[in-house]
Amino acid sequence: MENCKGFPCGVLAIDGTLVKIERPHDYEGWYCCKGFLAFNVQIVMDYTHKIRDFDIRPGSASNKQIFANSWFGQNIHQILPCNALVLANAGYTLMFHILTPYLENEIETVLERNYNYILSSTRMVVECGLGIFKNRFQIFLKPLNMAPRFEGD
Predict the structure, then answer these.
(1) 3-class DSSP state for residue 119?
(2) How far apart are CA 72 and CA 6, in angstroms?
């Protein structure tokens, strides 16, 4: 990503997306923060829109929870070189390999505002990649049927 937007050492971007589902029999925990039933899908993507990792959890799981419980989140220090950075939104926790933006009410200098702008414009690769993914696999644009399928139906 560094070559693409100029963010030093940015190698991956991470984000979550909600995929609507129809109401399953056991629906507790599937409601997302936006009030509908969903899967929360975490995608880790490089600048070529290649998905490098993903994790799927119930809609009630936050980005921080998904990251903490994902294989990628638990192994990030072994996977990435010391100087490699993953660019994330404010839904994630700032850590050694993860960069997040300053919150709007915390910005005090022009440098902090510029940092947010460059981080945001660089991590747009994952936003665009999610759009490409959902457009390519349009089944994800409508609620998925969660009813079990049985032979003979």
Answers:
(1) helix
(2) 24
Helix (H, G, I), strand (E, B) or coil at 22: coil
Q: Quick one: DSSP state of residue 55?
A: E
Which tokens in the block code for residue 24?
A: 């399953």
- What letter represents residue 4's amino acid? C
Structure tokens at 152: 């003979």
Task: Provide the 8-state DSSP code for 28.
Answer: T
Q: Are 70 and 55 in contact (CB under 8 A)?
A: yes
Span 34-51, pLDDT tens digits: 888 888 999 999 888 899
Of 110, 91, 109, nearest to 101 by C-alpha is 91
Ramachandran assignment for 128, one of left (phi > 0), alpha (psi -120 to 50 degrees), beta (any other):
alpha
Local structure of 141: helix, strand or coil: helix
Q: Which residues contact 114 (CB under 8 A, 6 or more apart)?
A: none
CA dist., res. 48 & res. 22, Å (int) = 33
- The predicted-structure confidence for 77-132, as pLDDT tens digits, reads as follows 999 998 899 999 999 999 999 999 999 888 899 999 999 999 988 888 888 888 88
